Amino acid sequence: MSPRRYSMGSRNAAIAKTRQRILDATIKLHTQHGIFGTTWKDIATEADVAIGTVYKHFPTLDDLVPACGELLMERLRPPSPEAVTEIIGGATDPKERLRRVANELFAFYHRGGRHLESDLRERELPAMREWEEYLRNMVAGFVREALAERPGDDVVQAISFLFDFPTFKAMRIRGMTVDLAAEMATAMALCWLKGKGRTSTD
């Protein structure tokens, strides 16, 4: 290996390491203080780099927030829409199908914790709007598959809110365990479906 190739490799590794430190610091601070409650100076101090270094890697929030989101998703492992068939498995009973979906989604919400929370201002950021749309579509897709009867969009949306992160968070605030929250969401979904004559499951 030539000295130049070795030097370039070391330099690239150092750049990647610095970028990682900045992202780790940003995620920590955003979780503690929110996106708009965190300054580039805060990030630089936490990452032990110069402010200019932060700006060099991430000139704007539109650069920084998506990069943090990608790293978080690698760590939090959201359920893949393509995995819904495997998650439901061979279950044919609507109650069991919905319970498996609730268990998978609520386990993800539990892993994500405060990382999945955002305020009204943060939701105006393009990356946050894109993320929330992805979550809504993922939940709706899971619910649609769990119902297994080609439900209309009105039914899917009515059930999906019971499996959304804000519903999970409200249950947890009221002292429910993750397992109990999943059971409760499933029971409420079935109750609504029975009221509409959609299922005869007890």
Automatic annotation (TrEMBL):
Keyword list, A-Z: DNA-binding, Transcription, Transcription regulation
Domain of life: Bacteria
Name recorded for this polypeptide: HTH tetR-type domain-containing protein
Molecular function per GO: DNA-binding transcription factor activity; transcription cis-regulatory region binding
Organism name: Mesorhizobium prunaredense
InterPro entries, per database record: Homeodomain-like_sf, HTH-type_TetR-like_transc_reg, HTH_TetR
DNA-binding region, residues: 39-58
Residues annotated as domain HTH tetR-type: 16-76
